[in-house]
Amino acid sequence: MILEQEQAMTTPPAYSQYIACLYDQAEPVGDLGRGTHYSIFRSIEWRELDGDFRDSGRFHDFAVIWDEDHDTRIIGLVEQLHMRGLLWPVVFIGERKGMVTVLLWQDVDPVRERSDWYNIVQELASNSIEGDVWNVDFGAFHRDPGQHQKLTNPGGIIDDKSELVAAYLQTVDVLWQLGEKKRAVFKPIVLPASTIEDLSL
């Protein structure tokens, strides 16, 4: 019984069949915004951070920022982004008062690789959320733990002063090193020519 309780406390919930939850705060922590807390998720992506296609998958970690109502419908939108190949530049995503805020990795312009990226994300948010139409606000996250450059644009992801919100996001990134996990990139499988010939018969 004690072992079961310990496992329940340390095993993150299964929010999705497509993306893994690595860490979960189930309720508000601290005194930032309106009940701010976060969860860390991992997906497998087939694009580099600059948008170029790759021949093997890579781990990509990102954070969902919750407010006090912990509205899990945001996961449905995340799944849609993942299934349509649009999740690769996203570092933070959150919902607050019917507005989804998506923060992209520093200096990434998804339009370079996919001209309709922003439009599709907005369309998905307007149609894939159960019973609600959500608008989307976009911002950018720059890895700058000391906030010296002040380049992070947190948009409306947390209802508080922008400098405090940026510091919070930097802290989450320091703890989890979001984005591409270089140490966990899968090497492509290269088959011998004879095997390829056998498979083509």
Question: Would you summarize the structure shown here?
Answer:
With 201 residues, the protein is an alpha/beta fold. The protein has five helices and seven strands. The protein has helices at 2-10, 73-83, 117-127, 162-176, 193-200; strands spanning 20-24, 37-47, 53-66, 90-96, 99-105, 135-141, 179-180.
Written description of the protein model:
Mean pLDDT is 86; it is low at 1-8. Strands 1, 2, 3, 4, 5, 6 and 7 form a 7-stranded mixed beta sheet that branches. The chain is an alpha/beta fold and 201 residues long. It has helices spanning 2-10, 73-83, 117-127, 162-176, 193-200; strands at residues 20-24, 37-47, 53-66, 90-96, 99-105, 135-141, 179-180.
Strand and helix layout:
Blueprint: H1 2-10, E1 20-24, E2 37-47, E3 53-66, H2 73-83, E4 90-96, E5 99-105, H3 117-127, E6 135-141, H4 162-176, E7 179-180, H5 193-200
Parallel strand pairs: 3-4, 5-6
Antiparallel strand pairs: 1-2, 2-3, 3-7, 4-5
